[in-house]
Amino acid sequence: TKVSSHPVCTDDMKVSSYPVCTSDTKVSSYPVCTSDMKVSSYPVCTSDTKVSSHPVCTSDMKVSSHPVCTSDTKVSSYPVCTSDTKVSSYPVCTSDTKISSHPVCTSDMKVGPYPVCTSYTKVSSHPVCTSDTKVSSHPVCTDDTKVSFYPVCTSDTKVSSYPVCTSDTKVSSHPVCTSDMKVGSYPVCTSDTKVSSHPVCTSDTKVSSYPVCT
Asked: Measured between alpha carbons, how far is 149 from 146 in angstroms, rounded to an integer?
C-alpha cells in the first residue's frame, strides 16, 4: 500500500485502516511502527512491541485499544497509562468507566481529563459533543460556547482550531465537518463526500492531502 502523505506508508505495507500496521511493516512516519511489529488498531501495541514514536509503547505492554490501558501497564508517553488502569492524562478513563471507543463516552461515565465526558453525556463522535452536554475540559462542548482551542463544537460556536465542526461553522483544520461547512485541512469532508473511516476517503472524493476531503 502506498500512501502519499501522513501517515505515510512505504512499499510492501499492508494497512487496513489508519494508522494500523501489520507485522513486518515499516512506516516512515507517524504513527511509526518498527519492523516485526503487530498493531491491531491505532494506537494499540501488543506485548513485546516497541514503537519509536507517538503513541509510544514500551516493551512488555498490553493495550487493548486507544487510548485504554489495562492494569499493570506502563506507557512512557502519550497516551500515557500508569499501573492499575489509572491514567492522569489524555485520554484517560478512570475505573468504573465504560468507553466503547476513542474517545466516545456513553452515559453514566465519569472521566477526568480529555476527552472527558461527564455523566449522562452523549457524544456522537470524536470529538463532537451534542447539546445539553457539559464537559469540564478539552474537548469541551456546550451550547453558545466560544472556545479558542480544540476540540469544541456546538451550534453557533466558532472555534479557531481543531477539531470543531457544526453547521454554519468554519473550521480551518481537522477534523470532520458536515454539510454547509468549509474546512481547509485534515481530515475534513464536505457534503457529498463519502468517508468510510477516519481519515480515508472513498470514491467521488477529491483529496489533495491526507486526510482532507472536499
From this structure: 9
- Cβ atoms 169, 158 nearer than 8 A: yes
Q: Give CA–CA dist 164/75, Å, rounded.
A: 29
Q: What is the pLDDT of residues 46-103, one digit of tens each?
A: 333 333 333 333 333 333 333 333 332 333 332 333 332 322 333 333 333 333 333 3
Q: 32-41 contacts: CB < 8 A, separation 24 or more?
A: 41/17, 41/65, 41/66
Which residues does 171 contact at the CB level (< 8 Å), separation at least 6? Answer: 159, 162, 163, 164, 165, 177, 181, 183, 188
Domain boundaries, the chain: 13-104
Q: What is the pTM of this model?
A: 0.11
Is there a contact between 92 and 69 (Cβ–Cβ < 8 Å)?
A: no
Residue type at 108 in one-letter notation: D
Give the Cα separation of 89 and 81 in Å (integer): 8
End-to-end CA distance of the chain: 23
Per DSSP, 68 falls in state B
Burial class from Cβ neighbours inside 10 Å (0-12, 13-18, 19+) for residue 12 reads: exposed
Structure letter (DSSP) for residue 131: S
Report the distance separating Cα 65 and Cα 34, nearest Å: 19
> pLDDT value at position 50?
35
- Mean pLDDT over the full length of the chain: 33
C-alpha–C-alpha distance, residues 204 and 148, integer Å: 33
